[in-house]
Amino acid sequence: MAVDPEGVGRDLACLVLTVVELLRELMERQAIRRVEEGGLDEEQVEAIGLTLMALEERMAELRDHFGLEPGDLNLDLGPLGPLLAPEDPG
């Protein structure tokens, strides 16, 4: 059985980026909850917003580098459904 080193690297990158994307989404939801509850001042809201935007931009760069689409990071968990929340159409 031949192993494709490039394929293994891409699969590993996909797995790692999936975990990072899941954490990014959880952090974003937590930040939104805190903002809605009024638990952050303006400076903190700005810092969190900039950080989340930078992380999202870096994720896009990494997906491009490894030839991945956003949907590639959404694992199908069978009866539980997709791992990540569906993209908001805007």
UniProtKB/TrEMBL annotation:
It holds the Pfam family GvpK. The keyword RNA-binding does not apply. It comes from the Bacteria. Its main location: other. The keyword NAD does not apply. Signal peptide: none annotated. It is found in: Gas vesicle. Keywords: Gas vesicle. InterPro entries: GvpK. Belongs to the gas vesicle GvpK family. This is Gas vesicle protein K. It comes from Kitasatospora aburaviensis. The lineage of its organism: Bacteria, Bacillati, Actinomycetota, Actinomycetes, Kitasatosporales.
